[in-house]
Design goal:
The chain has a two-stranded antiparallel sheet with strand order 1-4. The chain has a two-stranded antiparallel sheet with strand order 2-3. It has 82 residues and is α+β, with helices and mostly antiparallel strands. The longest helix has 26 residues, at 3-28. It contains two helices and four strands.
């Protein structure tokens, strides 16, 4: 096995591992913390000391992962195609 083939197979194996791991993560834990409020559900107001509910996560502190959103969309397309 020459070095170019070995490097290419290592890159492919790493990409496959990362993809399978992310798919498993989307299946096991479909939600992640909201980046806007860091999962705290509330954000400080721009003016003053008050707080308001996070608009991105609708005050749940959780957002659906991109991979899970794509998976749900593909499942809906398959279901509706019948």
């Amino acid at each position: 096995m020459n070095p170019a083939t070995l490097a290419a197979s290592a890159v492919i194996a790493t990409a496959l591992f990362v993809t399978v791991r992310y798919a498993a993560e989307c299946y096991i834990r479909p939600f992640r913390r909201c980046r806007s409020c860091q999962g705290k559900r509330r954000k400080p107001n721009r003016i003053g000391r008050g707080m308001h509910d996070c608009r991105r996560c609708h005050a749940t502190g959780l957002r659906l992962r991109i991979g899970r959103h794509l998976w749900n969309h593909l499942r809906a397309l398959h279901r509706d195609s019948r």
